[in-house]
Structures are given as C-alpha cells and as structure tokens.
Amino acid sequence: MSTDELTLDPEGLSGTARTLVRVSFGISGVAAILLGILLFVVPGRTLQLAAILLGVNFLIAGGMRIWLGAFGRLPAGQHRVLGILFGALLLVTGLIILRDSAAAAATLLLIIVLFAGIGWILDGIMAIVESGRAQNRVWAILFGVVSILAGIVVLAVPGWSATWLILFAAIGLVVTGLAAVIRAFTFGRGMVVSGAPSAAV
Questions:
Q1: Assigned domain for 10 exists
Q2: S-S: 155 plus which of 52, 65, 117, 197, CB 3.0-4.6 Å?
Q3: Domain of 30?
Q4: pTM for this entry
C-alpha cells in the first residue's frame, strides 16, 4: 500500500466530505488540547476520570459479552461458555475499577510506565543486535545503550518516571491538538474546484 492511499486528498472529496473532515479535525484537536491542559493542571483527577471511563467501558463490554454468550448466535458449547466467562471477568474488573478509581488510575499509570521501561530495554537490545546491518554501527549501538539505560531508569524509579511521562503526554496532546486545529482550518483551502467558471480577462 502506497503512502498516497493513506493520505486524505481534498481534491478527491466532495464539499460535504471536506467539511466533515475539517469538523473532525477541529473536534479532535480541541479535545486533545483540553485533555492536555487538564493532564498538566490536574493530572490526578484526569487520570481518575480516564480510569472511570475505562471501568464503564469494561462494564458495557462485559455485559455485551455475557448477553451474546447467552442469547447471541454463537456456536453452542465452549464458545458460549468462554464468552460468558470473559464477560464476567470484564464486569468484575469494571466494578473493581469503579469502586476505587483513584487506586485504579495509579495502577494504570504504573502499568504504562512499566511497559514503557520494558519496551525501551527491548528496543535497545534489538538495536544492538541488529547494529551489524545498520549504516552506522556506532550510532546504532549508542542508541541501543541509551535506550537500555533509559528503560532501567524508568523501572528503577517509576514514580519519578510517571511524573515526567504525564508532563510529556500533556505537552504532546496540546501540540498535536494545535496541529489538528490548524489542519481543520487549512484542509482543502485554496483548492481549485474543477468545473468552476474561470475569471474573465
């Protein structure tokens, strides 16, 4: 698949479709900016709200799984039983999260930090292992060592790492939100509409 197939070409869209694209860019951009500001100003409350939304999502998904397992058009036997068991697990998890959303938010953040640390370590190991095929082996090894050290630091002091992770996430959300809002105002602007009457000379 070429990159052209993954990009939005305003010339290939109707006027209504371009408007919808602009609106979606604008809404997602404003939402990202607001979320970034909230995450920067009140990170604890914002993470708690995210945990509550996750708990509600688990409750809905669990209820749907149980309903599909009991009354849906699924093959009888193990598929129904597994569906019901998985739905019950989601329901219990959702109830636990909603019972203490603050603790769930802290746990969720800790899991994200741990995954980030482990991911950086694995990424560094892979960079060193594959350095022989890199154009510049020294830079590949240096990147691998720095990535491994960063992952170790994240795992060694997860609380400090979580603070910086929240800060970077907030900044990233605001920046990407601003980019989306700008995109909403500039998408398809200045495009020559085919079939439009040309200006008289």
A1: no
A2: 117
A3: 16-186
A4: 0.59
Q: Of 172, 134, 118, 165, which is closest to residue 143 (Cα–Cα)?
A: 134
Q: What span, in angstroms and rounded, lies between the C-alpha atoms of 15 and 28?
A: 20
Backbone angles phi, psi at 66, to 5 degrees: -65, -45
- Which tokens hold the place of 136? 């510049």
Q: State the amino acid at position 97 in one-letter form.
A: I
In this structure, are residues 187 and 8 in contact, taking their beta carbons and an 8 Å threshold?
yes
DSSP string, 122-144: HHHHHHHHGGGGSSSHHHHHHHH
What's the rounded Cα separation, in Å, for the pair 76 and 66?
14
Q: Please state the length of the chain.
A: 201
Structural domain count, the chain: 1
87 domain-assigned: yes
Is 6 inside a domain boundary? no
Q: Is 143 exposed, middle or buried (0-12, 13-18, 19+ CB in 10 A)?
A: middle
